[in-house]
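Sequence, please.
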């Protein structure tokens, strides 16, 4: 095994050199001058070289030179003087050549040693650099692995709370943090940060007080670690919590175990929705690479929260849509109920079953409606703080009230017990019921007015019919008799004129003219009397009167008219006979005025307990707008006559395809 010269103490070499010097000097003193024994002093330089001591080499050379010179004076004589001097010179030359060679060797060894040392330093530095690079690579691999794990986790279809707990655990594991916690913004994006009950704690018992303290701290932007992160919009590291003036929790005894901390923002787009914070139980220096990684992870976690928020928004929208559907369904059904009902009592008796399902919590909903002193729905509502109501007003006068309540308070905030849309719906219901009540009131008043008008119309018709009969009778009895007497008087004058010798042709012609005019007047008088009240209707009945009216129509217009009267039609009440005659007469008059028909078909039959009269022509038809035109007095009169008798009147037709008039009257009153 080679000896390591650097491990031999320097005094050993010096001791050997001293001993060698003494021995060589003694030999030089013993041997005669002719012997070249001074060269042995070169050994001292070799010993200096072995010791790697430049000083020892030079000292050895100088000491050898001095002792060689001294030996010249004290050594025994021998040989010639010039040979002795040459020997001494050779010895000194040998000593210095050896010293120079040793110095050369020493310098070369020193240079080699320096080179070796430099190489060792380079190797050490390179090794240190490689180790640092390895550690940095391992750290970055850990960072990348964490980034990958969190990216995979946030894309899994799991609960957001599980994702956040996983992130807290993994980040704490990587950073060697003992505590991890989450703050989320109030209303998602506000500057007010609220503590969540989502934690990672290495020792729950040790940090229990700190947890309770944190869960009671709400931070505004710029206040505390979460607020500072929110304000700066970037990760923040606090190396000494106790010396940071903007760390309120550091002033509590519960925070004494927390020495350092860092936090980073959670972004959704360009908005901060939360802050994750981590705490160390020992002072920890800031790690810029870790903070950069946390910034990226904050974006990843933000995507998970955004997906969660989107799902919540979608669920909220679906719930809202379901509520809107319930409300619109209620409003639609109430509108249908109002349209098909004939009274407020019908509506209010059925409306409760439509209202209850429209509210958020139908199982808790009770409804009471009061209208004109009558109660519908729940007669007695339980005492409740969850109640809403709206009046039912008719023409600015409150006639009722709709009250809706929950029998117990739902587990929601006070401002969400009743929705704004529910309040709007309730107001609409009050207005709709008020409008319906107003309409029914108006309809009753209108129906009453119509009854009064119809009674007045029928009374006028009866009066007119009676007046016609009276006028026809008086014309026939009084005026007809007067004209007949006048005609008899003219006949007597004519006879007198013919029997007299003084009679003239002119008087006879005048009398004949007057008699002709009286005959025409009597005929016209009979026609007017017939129109006012057909004499044949009283004498021969309705059937003959209809036939006579048909013949007059055919003779006057040339239009073919087929009249069919069923044998089952019984003898009718005079008033009903007059009604059918007047309707038939008005129908034929309208055909003459408007139809331009070439053929008319008339059916008068018995149909069960009713009589039906159908008049159909092949004329130009009738416009739909004229069927119920209030200015069509003829049609209105016919309709009123038939309705007074409790019958049915209808008119139908298509332009270019003719018109049909149909009446049906019951036989119960005949």
């Amino acid at each position: 095994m080679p000896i390591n010269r650097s491990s031999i103490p320097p005094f050993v070499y010096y001791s050997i050199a001293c001993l060698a010097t003494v021995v060589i000097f003694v030999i030089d003193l013993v041997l005669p001058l002719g012997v070249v024994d001074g060269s042995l002093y070169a050994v001292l330089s070799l010993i200096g070289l072995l010791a790697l001591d430049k000083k020892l080499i030079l000292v050895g050379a100088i000491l050898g030179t001095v002792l060689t010179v001294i030996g010249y004076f004290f050594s025994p004589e021998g040989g010639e003087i010039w040979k002795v001097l040459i020997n001494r010179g050779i010895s000194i030359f040998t000593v210095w050549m050896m010293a120079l060679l040793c110095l050369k060797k020493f310098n070369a060894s020193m240079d080699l040693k320096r080179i070796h040392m430099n190489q060792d330093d380079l190797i050490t530095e390179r090794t240190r650099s490689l180790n640092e690079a390895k550690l940095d690579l391992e750290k970055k691999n850990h960072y990348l692995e964490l980034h990958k794990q969190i990216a995979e986790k946030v894309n899994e279809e799991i609960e957001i709370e599980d994702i956040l707990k996983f992130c807290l655990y993994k980040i704490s594991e990587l950073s060697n943090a003992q505590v991890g916690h989450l703050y989320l913004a109030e209303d998602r994006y506000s500057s007010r940060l609220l503590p969540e009950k989502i934690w990672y704690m290495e020792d729950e018992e040790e940090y229990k007080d700190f947890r309770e303290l944190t869960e009671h701290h709400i931070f505004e932007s710029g206040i505390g670690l979460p607020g500072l992160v929110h304000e700066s919009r970037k990760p923040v590291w606090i190396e000494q919590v106790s010396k940071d003036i903007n760390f309120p929790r550091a002033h509590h005894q519960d925070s004494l175990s927390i020495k350092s901390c860092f936090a980073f923002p959670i972004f959704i787009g360009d908005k901060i929705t939360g802050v994750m914070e981590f705490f160390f139980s020992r002072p920890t220096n800031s790690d810029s690479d870790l903070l950069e990684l946390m910034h990226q992870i904050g974006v990843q976690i933000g995507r998970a929260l955004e997906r969660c928020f989107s799902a919540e928004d979608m669920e909220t929208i679906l719930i809202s849509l379901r509520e809107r559907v319930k409300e619109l369904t209620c409003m639609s059904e109430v509108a249908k109920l109002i349209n098909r009902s004939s009274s407020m009592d019908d509506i209010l008796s059925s409306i409760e079953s439509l209202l209850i399902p429209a509210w958020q919590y139908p199982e808790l909903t009770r409804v009471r409606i009061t209208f004109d002193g009558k109660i519908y729905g729940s007669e007695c509502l339980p005492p409740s703080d969850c109640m809403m109501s709206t009046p039912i007003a008719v023409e600015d006068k409150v006639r009722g009230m709709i009250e809706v309540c929950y029998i117990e308070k739902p587990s929601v905030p006070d401002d969400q017990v009743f929705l704004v849309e529910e309040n709007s719906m309730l107001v609409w219901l009050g207005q709709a019921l008020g409008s319906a009540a107003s309409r029914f009131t108006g309809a009753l008043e209108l129906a009453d007015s119509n009854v009064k008008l119809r009674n007045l119309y029928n009374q006028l018709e009866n009066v007119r019919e009676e007046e016609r009969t009276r006028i026809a009778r008086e014309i026939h009895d009084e005026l007809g008799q007067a004209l007949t007497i006048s005609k008899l008087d003219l006949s007597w004058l004519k006879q007198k004129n013919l029997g007299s010798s003084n009679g003239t042709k002119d008087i006879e012609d005048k009398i004949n003219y007057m008699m002709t005019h009286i005959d025409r007047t009597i005929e016209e008088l009979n026609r007017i009397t017939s129109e006012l009240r057909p004499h044949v209707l009283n004498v021969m009945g309705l059937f003959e009167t209809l036939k006579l009216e048909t013949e007059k129509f055919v003779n006057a217009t040339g239009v073919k008219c087929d009249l069919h009267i069923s044998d089952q039609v019984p003898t009718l009440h005079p008033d009903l006979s007059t009604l059918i005659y007047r309707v038939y007469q008005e129908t034929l008059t309208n055909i003459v005025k408007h139809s331009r028909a070439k053929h008319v078909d008339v059916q008068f039959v018995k149909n069960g307990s009713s009589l039906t009269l159908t008049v159909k022509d092949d004329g130009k038809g009738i416009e739909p707008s004229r069927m119920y035109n209030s200015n069509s007095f003829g049609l209105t009169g016919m309709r009123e006559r038939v309705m007074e008798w409790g019958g049915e009147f209808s008119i139908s037709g298509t332009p270019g395809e003719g018109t049909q008039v149909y009446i049906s009257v019951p036989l119960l009153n005949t």
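Residues 327-444 form a domain with the Beta-Lactamase fold (CATH 3.30.450.40).
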